[in-house]
Amino acid sequence: MKLVDRLAQCHTPLTVKDAADFTLSHLNGAAEFASRVAHSPIRYVLSDDLTQLCTVLAYSKGSRTVTCADLLHVPAETVWVEWREAPWRAELERHGFPINAADTACSGRRGAFIQSSTDGRRGLIRTFWSDKEIATDVLASSMEAYFDFDTPEGEEPRAEDDDHRPTVCVSDGEDGDLLQRCFRFRYERSWDAYYKQARCSQATKQAITRHALSTIATDIPVLLAFLLLLGVRSGVCHRPQSFAQLNRSRARSGKLPLLDHVEVHAPVLPAYRFGGAEGNGIRTRPRRLHHVRGHLVRRGNKIFWRIPHLRGNSRAGAIRTRTVTWTVGESKPSVG
What we know:
Layout: H1 3-8, E1 14-17, E2 24-27, H2 34-38, E3 42-46, H3 48-59, E4 78-84, H4 85-94, H5 101-105, E5 109-116, E6 122-130, E7 139-148, H6 178-182, E8 183-187, H7 189-196, H8 202-214, H9 219-230, E9 237-241, H10 244-252, E10 261-265, E11 290-292, E12 295-299, E13 302-306, E14 309-311, E15 323-327, E16 334-335
Parallel strand pairs: 3-4, 3-10
Antiparallel strand pairs: 1-2, 4-5, 5-6, 6-7, 7-8, 9-10, 11-14, 12-13, 13-15, 15-16
């Protein structure tokens, strides 16, 4: 079952009991989003190949710059996006993120609910996940991210609700950092109130904040890469999934209906093609075989993605195709 269906069927509110005075606190969790995702006009489910592509784009050198910010917009006022954790974690590990083997073994699905302005340029993101593919429990991030793609350089992005809760700024350390300029992270309102009155040390609160941030921050670049591909014609392949017939059968069995969604797949990209042993015939001293990270470059209405590839050791042949070019406004990507 997809994460969106599990989320739509969550109706148990999240409450926690104080160990000292036994008071109950209600926290905003998955149950508050059940109706929202069920009524969302667009629900995307990423295939494994697209999840890998978006993660590579997100964490390859140069792909998080503000040069493509004008191409980003959310396609509706509410949008759901989900993907499997296994291919996502595998790519994160390749890009240097520390991945716990136990987490990979029990990984399930991840998703994000995006609420946007009518022009798709500003909004709020909350993330969700299940621990296993077969798990019914859905967990929600205690933090949310708000964004404004039109934030001028040197200014702060402004939240639509003008709520002045404390925020966290995340940077990837690169010049022209889209996360740093356009995004801020903060506790959801009920979680913010809960942690403010929690009786624990400042060091403990900081550790909790870092953990909470880790449940959402690494998802954002992947979502941005997906939105970028959505904005390029033929950037992704759409396959609408309707469950009308299946839901009639489920209804007769007393089961809840499944939600329609759109499966999205990666565009067909050329495989690496290797030449003969002598390559282009030029005799040079062989370089050691090494991996070259992918990187994204924007030039006018064209986006160039240099595919991650191996370089060196002429005996292994020469990679003939390493660059994919997406042209904004034309019908299909070209390959160079």
